[in-house]
Write a structure and sequence with these properties.
309 residues; alpha/beta; eight-stranded mixed beta sheet; binds beta-D-ribofuranose; binds calcium ion
Length: 309
C-alpha cells in the first residue's frame, strides 16, 4: 500500500531527514509540501525545502510558502541548532520557486482533491494547519489522518521546561489543531527514542550521495542530544514518516489534551489528562513510545531507497 502525504515542514535538519525518507521509501508518495517559519525564517525553510527536492531530483513536488509569523507574536528560530540557513550541510541554491498558493491553501486544496487518499503530516509550528482549518473546518474528516510532530504530553519540554519547540512557537495554532478532531500527536514522549547512533552518523558522512547529504542532518549539538537522556540524537520529525511506513514504530494511546496558550512559564505546554481525572473524552491519539530499532531499520531502508529513485 502506498500512503500519499502532504508534508508541512520547517527544514530544519530533522525535517530534511523526514523529507528524504518520504522520497526514498516506495510506500510513501509525497504529493506536495508547505513551509512554515520555525527552525528558521520561512524564506529559509522554503529555500531549504526546494533545495532538498532538487537535490533528490524531485522538483515535480509542488511547494507552497506558508506562514512567516505565528498566530500571535513571532517565531523563536533555532539557527544555533540547525545552522545559519536553517539546515546543516551544504545545499545549493534551488533553481525552482514555490507555487503561488499559501501553504494553508495548498493543504486545503489537496484535502479537497484527494479526500481520504491523503494524509497530512505537520512537523513545524502548527500555523499553516490552523489556518487551513479556518479555511476548511471539515479538514480532519476529509483526509485519511493528520499527524503532528509536536508537544510533550507527559514528559518535560525541549524549548522550555514545559514546552516542546513546535508547540511553543505557536501555541494558539497547536491548541486549535488539537481541538479540531483527533489528530495523531507524536511528541517528545515518543520521539526522544527515534534516535540514530553516532556510528550511523559517522558511516553516512563518509559515504557518497545520498548518504553524505543526510549525514550532517543527523548530527546535533551535544546540548540537544543530551535532552533525550543519552548522546544518540533524536530525529523527531522523521519518527512520523517512519511510523507511516511501519505502523509498529510508534505506539499511540487516546487522551484528552489541550495546549496552554498564554505567554508565561507554561506557554506551549500540553495539558494531558493522563489519569483521566476529567470527564473530557479523548480528543487526540498520543504517541507514548517509539521502537528505536524499528525506527533505525525503516530510516536505513528509506535512505537506501533514494539510490534507486
Ligand atoms: C521539533 O522542533 C523543531 O526544531 C524540529 O524540527 C522538530 O520539528 C522538535 O521539538
Ligand atoms: Ca520541524
Amino acid at each position: 500500500m502506498v500512503t500519499r502525504v502532504h508534508l508541512d515542514v520547517d527544514p530544519g535538519s530533522d525535517d530534511a531527514v523526514m523529507i528524504a525518507m518520504a522520497l526514498g521509501h516506495p510506500s510513501i508518495e509525497v504529493a506536495s509540501m508547505s513551509t512554515v517559519g520555525g527552525n528558521s525564517t520561512v524564506d529559509n525553510t522554503t529555500r531549504n525545502a526546494l533545495a532538498i527536492l532538487e537535490r533528490f531530483d524531485r522538483t515535480d513536488v509542488p511547494v507552497a510558502r506558508g506562514a512567516s509569523e505565528p498566530m500571535e507574536g513571532t517565531y523563536d528560530t533555532a539557527e544555533w541548532i540547525h545552522g545559519e540557513n536553517g539546515i546543516r550541510g551544504d545545499l545549493s541554491e534551488p533553481s525552482t520557486e514555490p507555487v503561488e498558493a499559501h501553504g494553508a491553501e495548498l493543504i486545503v486544496r489537496q484535502a479537497r482533491e484527494h479526500g481520504d487518499d491523503i494524509t497530512i503530516v505537520a512537523v513545524g509550528p502548527m500555523t499553516n494547519l490552523a489556518m487551513a482549518l479556518q479555511l476548511e473546518p471539515s479538514l480532519p474528516d476529509m483526509v485519511d489522518g493528520i499527524y503532528l510532530m509536536g508537544g510533550a504530553a507527559t514528559v518535560a519540554g525541549n524549548k522550555t521546561p514545559m514546552a516542546e519547540a513546535n508547540f511553543h512557537n505557536d501555541p494558539v495554532a497547536a491548541s486549535r489543531v488539537i481541538q479540531s478532531g483527533r489528530p495523531f500527536m507524536a511528541g517528545l514522549d515518543a520521539t526522544h527514542d527515534a534516535t540514530v547512533s553516532g556510528e550511523m552518523i559517522d558511516e553516512y558522512s563518509g559515504l557518497d550521495e545520498p548518504y553524505d547529504i543526510v549525514g550532517p542532518w543527523l548530527d546535533y549539538p551535544d546540548e540537544i542530544k543530551r535532552l533525550g537522556g543519552g548522546m544518540d540524537p533524536a530525529i523527531h520529525d522523521a519518527a512520523v514518516v517512519a511510523h507511516l511506513i511501519d505502523p509498529a514504530v510508534l505506539t499511540f494511546g487516546s487522551y484528552y489534551l489541550d495546549v496552554e496558550t498564554t505567554s508565561g512559564l507554561c506557554r506551549g505546554a500540553v495539558v494531558c489528562d493522563e489519569r483521566r481525572v476529567t470527564d473530557n473524552a479523548p480528543n487526540a491519539e498520543v504517541a507514548v513510545a517509539a521502537d528505536t530499532e524499528r525506527f533505525r531499520s525503516v530510516f536505513e531502508e528509506a535512505i537506501d531507497g533514494l539510490l534507486e529513485g
